[in-house]
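Need tokens for this chain, all 237 residues.
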Amino acid sequence: MATDQDRSRPLKGTAGLRLAGTIVALSAALLFGGCGSGDSPEASDPPNEIAGMTRNPPLVVGSASLPNVNPGRKNRGTHFRADKDGLMLVFFGYTFCPDVCPTTLADLRLALAELAPSERRQVELAMVTVDPKRDSARVLNRYVGHFSPRDSFAAFRTGNPDRLARIEDQFKAAHELGKPKADGSYDVAHRAQIYAVDDRGVVRVEWPFGAGFEAIAADIENLLGQQPRPSVSGNDN
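Here are the structure tokens for all 237 residues:
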């Protein structure tokens, strides 16, 4: 389960982020727990008062791809890249998650509702299941469809654990399956960051669990309005 620390609002500024990194280092053994959230990346103060966290250099994930199993999506691309001038909000989770995943998706729905219609059309929600054994394409689509219109989200799923692990490595994400209980059910510990990926495949901002929909909405507006965008060199991490 997510801890009270995981549920706190993100720290702002370099000093706060150093403190967050220290807390994470001291709590490395607790990075996973139930349906828990993950650690905070090292960051620097981003421009335009972005509330989320940024890496220097940023993650570049545009070459990463997984099958998109949402048949209702207008653009059925398989890569982790937004449409032109847009953002893809990527989240790793699973449909049997009791608390963190539905809370995160509900926050994203509220954040997107804060945007102007023209801005909302530039943003796509994308969920990657870390529990494909139980999350069939039908189950995953039905679940994410509770939080987003059917034609405006990507549902990424693979039954190949090695392929999923490679994608997680590129996002610095991770998950761990719990031991089966007497009834056959099990929990999945996973990092609960939300990744805002632009049309170049660059992760512009990451939000930890509990960031709050108002902060996420404000960051999205700032990111969509940033011109020119930060330059990025190098290949995918």
